[in-house]
Amino acid sequence: MEAAKISKIESMIRHSYMGVVWTHKIQEKQADIYIRQKNIFEIIRIISSSLTAAGLVSIIFASDELWIKLLTALLSFTTLTMEALTKSFDYDKLVLSHKNTAIELLELRDKYQWLIYHAQESDNIMNIEAEYQKAEKKKHEIYKEAPRTTDKAVKLAEKALHVNKDNDFSEDDINSSLPQCLKR
Questions:
Q1: Is the residue at 151 inside a domain?
Q2: Which one of 124, 149, 150, 153 is most buried, counting C-beta atoms within 10 A?
Q3: pTM, whole model, 2 decimals?
């Protein structure tokens, strides 16, 4: 009976572990999306701002062409729009929020790995159950506070985990980063 119970709790821990692995990767990918968006907006803002200044110089010193005035006005509007977007979305805060959640989930992922190991190696189901309940409580606290993610982040996480195998390491990969005395 005890072995069957340990097997069931291990299955539950493994399921929770995989959920945390996914959520962690989704949070990382959402932060990456926001970083990319911010960078694109910044590049557009810098280019349009530079071209606006060039257009103004051209209007003042060289030309009275209508198309230059219209283009300069359009570029000025683009600059203002990009500035407003980057300020209203506060990308730095969004990125930090997703990164912090990812770090918390990484800690929890390690806890679940530890629990899986102990479920496989221990006969003391009471300790394992108690630790699992603590981990589940922590998981739900993190999920309550976690910032929302997009479908794009889910798709990027799926590619990272299934195609790119982000969390898979061979023994050679692990050994290459360890001191000689810890290698297998």
A1: yes
A2: 153
A3: 0.79
Our count of domains for the chain comes to: 1
Q: What is the pLDDT of residue 175?
A: 58
pLDDT in tens, 101-136: 999 999 999 999 999 888 888 777 888 899 999 999
Question: How does DSSP assign the chain, residue by residue?
Answer: -HHHHHHHHHHHHHHHHHHHHHHHHHHHHHHHHHHHHHHHHHHHHHHHHHHHHHHHHHHHHT---HHHHHHHHHHHHHHHHHHHHHHHHTHHHHHHHHHHHHHHHHHHHHHHHHHHHHHHH-S-HHHHHHHHHHHHHHHHHHHHHPPP--HHHHHHHHIIIIIS-TT---HHHHHHTS-GGG--
Does a structural domain hold residue 62? Answer: yes
C-beta pairs of 35-38 under 8 Å, 24+ apart in sequence: 35/91, 35/95, 37/89, 37/91, 38/86, 38/91, 38/92, 38/95
Residue range 164-174, pLDDT digits in tens: 766 665 667 55
Residue 29: domain span? 2-166
Residue 171: phi, psi to the nearest 5? Answer: -60, -35
